[in-house]
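Hi X.,

You mentioned you wanted examples for the new student's onboarding notes, showing what a folding record looks like when two proteins sit in one file. Here is a clean example. The first protein comes first, with its sequence line followed by its structure tokens.
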Amino acid sequence: MRLFILFSLLTSFKALAHPVSFKDAIGVMSYNSSQMNELMVTYSLSSQMALGHTYIREKKSEFYIPRVNFLARRWYNENSQGNLYLSAGSGLEKYASKNSNVHLGAVVADWESRKHYVYLEHLYMLRDNQDNPLWLQRDDNHSKVRAGFAPFLADYKDLNVWFIAQLTKHNDETAQATQFLRFYMKNTLWEIGADFNGGFAFNFMIHI
């Protein structure tokens, strides 16, 4: 019974950042920084699979990519939960009024309790477009590592606060460190952050 109660709490508000949620759930996730803007909308066909669409704007290119997200595996411990997600999609890159093909693959792994949180993500895009002078790589790799903790425990219906540290790496560019304050209440989560170069970041997630 204790494990069931904990699982209910975790999946009700911690799963907000996950690419697959409960059956028939609609998710809206927006990630924004000075380098990249991303919006993903998902519809979960089941607790294992979701259909989605991703919009990304980066280096003056725009990407429109339908995708499928899978929950590959989930681990339960007495006081924590781990997840492994796989995602694949294919769509268009728009640059200077020209459209070209782009393919996407992603792997996401996380582990979380009510007190601690670890998140790993690798996003890969294979781009046909090589006309953008700001972005000559056809193979595009984004890696993200996050770790966080809650300074206090709050009820699901109350405002929850977390401190999050994030490290991102894009191709051969210098890794970027960002610190976030995460807030969530019920089915809504938002994060406000800043990197060490003065750049601003804002993320927003909701499931209905």
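Then the second protein repeats the pattern, sequence line and then tokens:
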Amino acid sequence: MNTTMNFDQMTVAEIAIQHPSAAHVFNKYQIDFCCGGKKPFREACEKAGVNPDEVMTELFSSETNSMPGTIRFDTWEPTLLADFIVQHHHGFVRRSIPQLYELIAKVCAAHGDRDAYLLTLRDTFTELSEELLLHMEKEEVVLFPAIKRLYEETRIPVDVTPIPSHLMAPMKVMEDEHEHAGDLIKKIRTLTSNYTPPASACPTYRVTYRRLEEFDQDLMQHIHLENNVLFLKVKERLTNAYSVN
């Protein structure tokens, strides 16, 4: 990472896009780079209650120590990116939800009487899961196929292909749903003290928190790729091809 880069002129989403290793640092400090990715770097740090200069130092370090070949998703074609999101992130969500349901149920059964917040955690995760499953289905059945059609038919007049020219509204709906999912994740972080189990927690309790944290981090990257990379590319294409604002 170029230490002369002026972070004050960049949003956190731009930093995460141009320097993928930054996502780990942002997750560590709970800096919202997906739904809140349009915020300037220092403003996002201050909102998260962390020192921007300390975060910047860690960003430089993470870039220096990052493994070669870090993926720059902003260089990918939107159709490939959409497929990756479905196969990697949607697949992860669908695999993880039943596993987490089982873990949370066990922890609630064993410790729910003592730790009442676990019941709220269970209900919050259930709400998040149900919303994500419906959300992903809408993307896979409606939105992503329409995005692919946009890139296949850009030379056809808009009156012949009306669907691609009306993608702004469904993308906005998806972004709003991402925002709500982010709010639910933040509630889970608060309930779990940022995934810090009690000192007396049993192994299942600890595994549950660790798996929830992994789910959180994957979802942040998932939403970031959609809001700040895929949807941004589509919006630019619509503006250029169809004069859609």
